[in-house]
Amino acid sequence: xxxxxxxxxxxxxxxxxxxxxxxxxxxxxxxxxxxxxxxxxxxxxxxxxxxxxxxxxxxxxxxxxxxxxxxxxxxxxxxxxxxxxxxxxxxxxxxxxxxxxxxxxxxxxxxxxxxxxxxxxxxxxxxxxxxxxxxxxxxxxxxxxxxxxxxxxxxxxxxxxxxxxxxxxxxxxxxxxxxxxxxxxxxxxxxxxxxxxxxxxxxxxxxxxxxxxxxxxxxxxxxxxxxxxxxxxxxxxxxxxxxxxxxxxxxxxxxxxxxxxxxxxxxxxxxxxxxxxxxxxxxxxxxxxxxxxxxxxxxxxxxxxxxxxxxxxxxxxxxxxxxxxxxxxxxxxxxxxxxxxxxxxxxxxxxxxxxxxxxxxxxxxxxxxxxxxxxxxxxxxxxxxxxxxxxxxxxxxxxxxxxxxxxxxxxxxxxxxxxxxxxxxxxxxxxxxxxxxxxxxxxx
Length: 444
Known about the structure:
single chain; 444 residues; alpha/beta; Aspartate Aminotransferase, domain 1; Aspartate Aminotransferase, domain 2; 2 domains; seven-stranded mixed sheet; four-stranded mixed sheet; 37% helix; 16% strand; globular
């Protein structure tokens, strides 16, 4: 039996009424990518206020890797909420914060002593990681990358590469941030293939340090092992390993931004585990707590202990209900072996996308790692000119047919998949069929 059930046109009358209220009460800045309002969710399915059931390939932009309304997580939330919901960790501490820090210290890569602090969102984790690196090194420079996304606060959008909608009109940006090319093979300017990524980045950094800023002025390098909003581009292991080597050579803190890649999405708990890099600091959020606001910064103990007492923190960071949700989420991910499930979903999805790329003249590249996959849409496969409005049109058409999906990319020309890993094989096949119909309906 199909999982998609559409009772009305999309959006239905109740969603339309709520959209009118939204437009009257909420500013236009917080954008809505689909016109439907959700009533309930379970696993990989969403049901809207009009009774329409959709397959979810967005997963709350990667927050729902475990799936919507997992019973163990819901029970953990309810149990903690009946005890107390908040005291502020900095005033009266509580055990769930400590238990989660211990778990993340053990779970993250690196055979060295680690410590963890908790915050509320991915960008807050970014901010704190930069603060820690600057304090520990006594330096101020930060290296970020083209196509990067690190959030919407002042530091977050300063580190972010894409101008619209994230940075446009919000300047001036934070200072002492320096940008290098991301190892985006499909759009790499050099002609030679295969690319010797270690040699490429040795040369890039040599020229950068000679012509832009001395390495002893750089506090940190921050990079997504797989670009998130920038287009789901996996960085080759050799490139990341060379960057980490250069950072170690010059005393630069290597920060892995795993906000979107973390918690089983790529077939390991963290995407950096596909390399031989043990980050000095790793930041995480999104699927850490199945949708509750929580993020974490885990790093080498000596780095994390560098800032003075009271120099880090926040009123809501490490909320006890969110901590219990995170502990239950991680336990369920381990019990269900979601890393293996992500690999299976990814292989099935990429096989489908590769077959579709043969039929469609607009799919320039299929790429991904684990269940983090994308198709880059181009006007012509030879020129690789981005087909900028196509992904949005596919997303809108898919929604009309019962699939919630996401776009991405600096040029907004990429379709990405972030379905909950709880999705069934039948639901995955049904969702991919909808996406295929939507793509094959494209025309210039």
